[in-house]
Amino acid sequence: MAEAVRVLIADDQALLRGSFRVLIDATPGMTAVGEAGDGAAAVELARSLRPDVVLMDLRMPVLDGMEATRRICSDPELSRVRVLALTMFDMDEYVYPALQAGASGFLLKDASPTDLVAGIRVIASGESVLAPTVTRRLIANFSRHSEPPRPVRRLVGLTKREQEVLVLIANGLSNAEISERLVISLPTVKTHVGSLLAKLHARDRAQLVIIAYESGLAEPGMPG
Structure pTM? Predict the structure, then answer.
């Protein structure tokens, strides 16, 4: 029997933390291992509890969720801990920096319980949770205020096909959609994704999206 997915809940609203805990503990194969009311506590608990997934509110006192995410994701001892960022609004100014900091994805706080549970499972499996349309709008919004794309030396080693796959990932397409778009098998797509993760030293698909846009390979407004 597979071990339960261990979840740390970080949110400054006690009522919301309690609601998340009830949902998680009621879900087979999932358990809430702790609660944090601010970002500093979230980092400390991540280090002591070593959860599989941290549900991270991006707006918290003492230390905000973005910085807490950065500290967790940059800690070699927490390399197996994944962060799922939560935000109230899909244009929250902290979401893009949170992805840059290492979050494996994000969900809106008004997501359905089914979507939240599914998101936790996906994150725990090593994948990422990226709502395609919201992700594209976020990246478009912040790219307007960021520095011009800079060439990323790591992209030089990518094949033409890998670059095509990377662009489609950046535009929010799933493996199945990429398979259909490029007329290649699903196992082949998975092979390309695995190669991209290895060559670009990326934790997951969320990091591939960041690399694609920051390098200029993908651009806001490009067709998906």
Answer: 0.74
